């Protein structure tokens, strides 16, 4: 299978970049599953159903979230009707929405997408290791089970992300980090066959502070005086993420390549081999 | 000028990788300044003078540090005799050692190396923006001033690192992050001419938890029971960092390329153009 | 019923104070249940079975713990044989020991003691609200159920502690905080009948930094250079905690009085009214 | 001299309590200096000049602040005209307002009031120890110098507060904590003569979560879903703080007594002895 993943979409610059580059990427890579983390898509703060629908119309299959899940308060009441919007799996019991989704892909194949919030330097949350473990025990990767498993681990600390990668190694097709808004260059296949990248990077304008206007963010941090509200930077966005090809017999990864298209970063456009 | 920088060296795997690849890199790139962050070189915890001397013997000019500066307690008493070991500039007044060093490079050129500790999700420390600003105001980059300025910003949060990059933009040759132990793929030249990379990545074994043995780190984080002390992973290390070429008239950057050699990561070996 | 609770015992000064004052307090108050938080009893770091046995010999019924539970590594292997040592209830599944204990008190009455770790400014941990809720739903306070319920909430933030107090209000006899090592003066009966105190205070020498030697703690914090290991201050300890009387029909609290005896703090010695 | 200090005033309940009890307290104690921490006086978020003026009209001499200093943005532009509003001394250089004030008290005596932000579990800030040290070195307590020195240390961690107490011991009349919104029962005179209390407690409604509506705070913390904005609880407030008498020759403390009047907490009304 071919899997395409994009990291946190930040504001209009990020949305425009994703939607502009999707046609070419679909032509080029013909992905069986495309997932985007949308937690900052609505002006930097959460996602709306309208924006999610634009992603779906562009060919994206699933929108994942993170610590900004409820920034758009309307989502609390509507997420239960949104089978393809996935919020963190380790929210408290009784939280609206779902923490993972099992989809039908082409050719009757099944793909599982999970979203989890990590905890180091973040808000208190239930154990993401236990939560992911429960999902993985209920959905075995490979023949007779699920054909591909993608886990979006939304977290700050590189240590926790690498540990989660090893924790899932051999049980998922791809474990990919989000939230830092900077792509890492450590895409790799872990020893037991899971593709891994510490962070996919954001989709947004990199002449910024993690996608937000740099002047405002700098004033806030350096002077510690009130500023206008942080809003997304408006220069050309870069689409950031990764592309993975899996072995159809095992569901494990054969390759992982970084995706960086448009905007200010060095470009990386993967080619399809399968 | 040509500048070579390596991120946090973790244990023997990291030291061996740096020392093994230095001869080739010197041949290939002929750097005017080579700097390595050594804060985890001694078994993961700080650096010793002996290890620093091995780096110097291999052609490294300056060793920078970070939050692990004093893990090897002997350094407190000896760092004042070590002009080429630089500890964070924003430690309390009266701290032994120096926070920056002005070196004589080839051809009578002057290079400044600064080390600063950032603060988000880290130990309380004096304002790194004010501290770096003081150093930059006392050492102007470009004709009649300093020929190259390298600032190693040791921090956790990508937002703070990007803000520091913009804060120094136009006033330094290179602002490069350390501490996350994962290389980022956002190497770029900022709008006013400063080369920037959110994190250089560690020099060490990437089949690990940020360079330390993955089984121990996982047990500690997942089970929350006592474990043996974390120690460095022992597989083949990757040398991680970046290579920068500057404009001799302005001291600003013309190019920045990632360096990733050996070990498990995708390889990136820059070429010299100047 | 009459309940006596002491906060974190810190080192020898704290142990000596508890053991010296227990005989008088037993005479004076004749408690049905006496509980002490022992997480710093062994030189400031955890508790040993030997020390717990000294507490039991002095008439203490239960020893609770906190974030220092496993500082004495031997306890991991022995805690399962210790029915009266209670570790935090919201540790990961599979953790040795128990998070609460149901005891037989005088006259066939049943008392429940729970220990929970809060999360604000502390290590990531599973939801203490959900964990405590499960215990309280399985053990109803009052006629036909449990005669008294004591919950030791071990946490940093006063907000989280007050919220936990209200969360348990009407369902527990006493919710009392530990971990800050400073007694609060807000002992009160909440609107639905639960006695509450944000922090019981430590049992130890208050001419210190939360029970540890002040010179060492100050050097560490102010100079940020290596120091000797923090160890408990050795002046006369104050026994700190609270005394609660409950209504035998409901299990709810009728009174709560602070306990501060010996050492440097203002003295508060409750009287028995029931 | 006689000094009266009140902790963080939270919303209308806190303001009403302070203003209602001031006449009696002035009659009873005839203070030479009265200081209140006003950082939550305006609906829980900062202070306005209008509210500060109400405090001054009630006989309060100085209003101190904390991490909520700029919640009312207007204060940024007006604080320079407010000699008796004191913001934290360790804000970045160039911050409007002042971090301490030297006042003329009755009989030509001089009193110094300092406000400092601590750092553990709080926003990054410059070293409060260095900042307070500079102020204390410029203003010596005792004969020929300043007659009384009050330092409001605004912080979360009890350890840092106790260390700051010892750091100032013998150099200040009173070191008193704020920010936790819960009064501590550890008021004491430190070995070298400085009165100390880890936290003065808030002035506000204690049937709450640190002064804010308990239902909203609980929903936010337990369910992690969006709620209405946190606003102050509206029940009867308790005035919380401490009363100190100093030795006129040395400026050091002779007594410290807690103040808790009105509302739900146990009452403590000091008497004047001098
Ligand atoms: Fe994000
Ligand atoms: Fe996020
Ligand atoms: Fe490091
Ligand atoms: Fe570090
Ligand atoms: Fe403790
Ligand atoms: Fe503790
Ligand atoms: Fe406050
Ligand atoms: Fe505060």
From TrEMBL, chains A, B, C, D:
Pfam families: YmdB (PF13277). Fe cation 2 binds at residues 39, 67, 154, 179. The keyword Iron-sulfur does not apply. The active site is at residue 68. One of its GO terms (molecular function) is 2',3'-cyclic-nucleotide 3'-phosphodiesterase activity. Fe cation 1 binds at residues 8, 39-40, 181. Residues 2-187 form the Capsule synthesis protein CapA domain. Keywords: Metal-binding. This is YmdB family metallophosphoesterase. It comes from Azospirillum griseum. The lineage of its organism: Bacteria, Pseudomonadati, Pseudomonadota, Alphaproteobacteria, Rhodospirillales.
